[in-house]
Amino acid sequence: MPLDRYHPYALALMRIVSGLIFMEHGTQKLLGFPAGGHGTVELMSLFGLAGAIELVGGLLLVLGLFTRVVAFVCSGEMAFAYFMAHAPQDFFPVNNGGDAAILYCFVFLFLVFAGAGAASLDGARGRSA
């Protein structure tokens, strides 16, 4: 298939974009930037731990460093967030605001199995799929 040769680059693009957006959730929780959401939170709280995972995990995903392990942790965080914060509000994700958490969970789970793709520090270290 002609597009198959672009697979590592498409994978890298998905990893980088999802990592950047995920990191933004962490900066919002921990640094109050961009403004909105819950405001800054205490680091030693569930929201603080989530913010730390999002900020550090997002950065590591952007860099493509320890991608499989980091993606596994981030996927787990999103599953936990969905069932703790969203699912109790309503059964349907579109009504409980949890659709992004579900998407992140499965994008990160995919990265656990797919690896970092191109343009990654894992690839430079010889650890990419």
UniProtKB/TrEMBL annotation:
The keyword Transmembrane applies. The keyword Cell membrane applies. The chain crosses the membrane at residues 43-66, 101-121. It is a multi-pass membrane protein. InterPro entries: DoxX (IPR032808), DoxX-like_oxidoreductase (IPR051907). It is found in: Cell membrane. Coiled coil: none annotated. Keywords: Cell membrane, Membrane, Transmembrane, Transmembrane helix. Belongs to the DoxX family. This is DoxX family protein. It comes from Jiella sonneratiae.
